[in-house]
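ARCHIVE CARD
CATEGORY: sequence design from structure
SOURCE FIELD: tokenized fold
FIELD CONTENT:
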């Protein structure tokens, strides 16, 4: 799948009639493609950059209901999310895995223990489980070593889940393609085509090869997330999206050792924030701010956000004395939230919407966690224009079942599980493609060298950042985006990618430049001092 001739072969079929054209290759588009193919529809997905390049590789990577949404009264969204979490945990072990969350309670805290207890009970009941438990301060300290002990009264532990968001998108798209769907990255829908006053297709432009084609479909679905208003503007619809940026800091686990997630209220504004382990590093997030930069630029953390998140970490782990030098990487994503004009961005609803405007179906908002439900809603809306289309079923699993063991000497159980989760039915082919020594993990990560070879050979990599930031996540996990190991990476992937030396050097320079601009820190002197905010927490305790 997706070897060197894939793009040309696919391009030559674009003039075929399609049932559904899906614009946008994030989790929303991926889910719609998967479910459309399951229903027997001829479905084409196009993504203007790389698959998951948008928000779907820049989320907090939680598969969760979100206690915050529950606290805001979004019971329906929370219930749907925790039930999807349960399904995804069962369907995709190794890709969606359980994550314990800790919630400390301190003297004088508001909300206090009993409010949290009530919230967690509802959270668990909505999920039809009972995962939360209260621990004494002594036991809680064992769960969260290094946590500030001053005034600690104890705390809760409850169950949630996490994923690799970009790999989730890839797995869903590739399973859709294996089942007969078509997906192309680096193909933008530039102009909507109309017939009889209705949107009936789009003019597509291949951003790698510069060619263009007109594609017609019974239904055109705008799954472009934060970009949704652009296509909507072409049918005269008023702008509705309020792009909100959320940013994260990444620390090496040895500097910020957390064995499970810690959720707490930020000392400055009492917003819920978290610190959690992911892929061997510690992730701190997130912010929620209006994003005014152009959407086509890679979003990046702003100096004030760095300071805000540093104050959060410092308030919980003052003894670790973390500084900017400890940060390995950062990343920021833009939430496609439907704006209602609320002053506080965090008060805007995170639910999804399906709008039909002059035949254009727009599906946006929502969460990674609920992508299957969003896809089913979109297809239900599409059914009106697709006579004979079966009714989408809510019962079927969204991920394909992966049967059988993974034959690979030398892989431990965790590695097998990880490969089966991330690559599904393709995991055996990945292992078979590995050259000697490539079933080893890249130092400091859980990623195998073989994953790089496989991605370069078969996963539609267009540029080096596709490989290092989305197919695998080395750009987030290693210092300087993995600069030190680029010669070894090159030795594994350059021939697979068919790139000349000049092309490799160009790609490497572009990747490192992008990494510095969007995946690292802004200039140190621009970052406000955060110590005063973190200290303000101490007397409160
Ligand atoms: C900081 C942050 C943290 C989050 N954390 C979580 C979390 O922990 N758990 C959770 O469940 N959810 C989380 N979310 C929400 C979740 O990430 C998003 O709801 C989801 O990723 C949106 O997916 P999407 O496919 O709609 O949009 P996107 O992933 O942005 O995909 C849209 C795609 O459309 C493409 N596109 C745009 N215009 C065109 C065009 N003309 N032609 C072709 N392609 C086009 C874009 O390039 C983009 O890749 C978070 C969001 C943010 C911002």
């Amino acid at each position: 799948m997706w070897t060197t001739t894939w793009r040309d072969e696919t391009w030559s079929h674009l003039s075929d009639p399609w049932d559904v054209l899906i614009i946008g290759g994030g989790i929303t588009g991926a889910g719609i493609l998967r479910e459309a193919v399951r229903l027997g529809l001829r479905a084409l997905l196009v993504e203007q950059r790389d698959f998951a390049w948008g928000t779907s590789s820049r989320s907090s990577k939680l598969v969760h209901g979100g206690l915050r949404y529950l606290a805001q009264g979004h019971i329906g969204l929370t219930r749907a999310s925790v039930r999807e979490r349960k399904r995804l945990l069962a369907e995709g072990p190794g890709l969606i895995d359980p994550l314990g969350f800790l919630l400390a309670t301190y003297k004088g805290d508001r909300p206090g223990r009993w409010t949290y207890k009530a919230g967690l009970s509802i959270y668990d009941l909505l999920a039809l489980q009972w995962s939360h438990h209260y621990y004494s301060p002594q036991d809680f300290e064992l769960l969260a070593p290094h946590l500030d002990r001053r005034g600690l009264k104890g705390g809760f532990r409850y169950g949630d889940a996490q994923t690799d968001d970009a790999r989730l998108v890839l797995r869903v798209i590739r399973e859709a393609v294996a089942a007969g769907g078509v997906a192309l990255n680096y193909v933008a829908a530039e102009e909507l085509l109309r017939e009889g006053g209705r949107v009936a297709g789009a003019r597509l432009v291949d951003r790698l090869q510069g060619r263009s084609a007109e594609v017609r479909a019974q239904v055109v679905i705008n799954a472009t997330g934060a970009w949704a208003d652009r296509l909507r503007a072409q049918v005269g619809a008023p702008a509705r999206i309020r792009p909100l940026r959320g940013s994260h800091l990444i620390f090496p686990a040895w500097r910020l050792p957390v064995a499970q997630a810690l959720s707490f209220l930020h000392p400055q504004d009492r917003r819920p924030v978290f610190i959690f382990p992911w892929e061997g590093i510690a992730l701190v997030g997130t912010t929620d701010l209006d994003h005014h930069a152009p959407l086509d630029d890679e979003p990046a953390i702003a100096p004030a956000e760095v300071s805000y998140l540093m104050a959060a970490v410092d308030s919980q782990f003052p003894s670790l004395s973390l500084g900017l030098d400890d940060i390995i990487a950062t990343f920021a994503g833009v939430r496609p939230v439907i704006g209602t004009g609320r002053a506080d961005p965090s008060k805007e609803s995170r639910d999804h919407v399906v709008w039909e405007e002059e035949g254009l179906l727009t599906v946006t908002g929502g969460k990674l966690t609920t992508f299957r439900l969003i896809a089913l809603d979109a297809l239900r809306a599409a059914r009106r224009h697709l006579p004979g289309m079966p009714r989408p079923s809510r019962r079927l699993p969204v991920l394909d079942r992966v049967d059988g063991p993974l034959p690979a000497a030398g892989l431990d159980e965790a590695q097998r599980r990880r490969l089966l989760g991330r690559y599904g039915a393709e995991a055996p082919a990945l292992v078979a493609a590995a050259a000697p020594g490539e079933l080893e993990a890249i130092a400091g990560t859980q990623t195998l060298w073989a994953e790089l070879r496989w991605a370069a050979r078969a996963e539609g990599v267009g540029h080096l950042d596709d490989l290092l930031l989305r197919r695998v996540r080395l750009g987030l996990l290693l210092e300087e985006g993995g600069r030190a190991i680029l010669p070894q990476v090159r030795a594994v992937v350059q021939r697979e990618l068919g790139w000349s030396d000049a092309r490799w050097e160009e790609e490497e320079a572009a990747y490192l430049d992008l990494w510095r601009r969007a995946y690292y820190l802004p200039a140190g002197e621009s970052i406000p001092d955060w110590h005063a905010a973190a200290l303000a927490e101490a007397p409160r305790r």
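CARD ANNOTATION: Residues 413-499 form one domain. The longest strand covers residues 152-163.
SHELF: design records, drawer C
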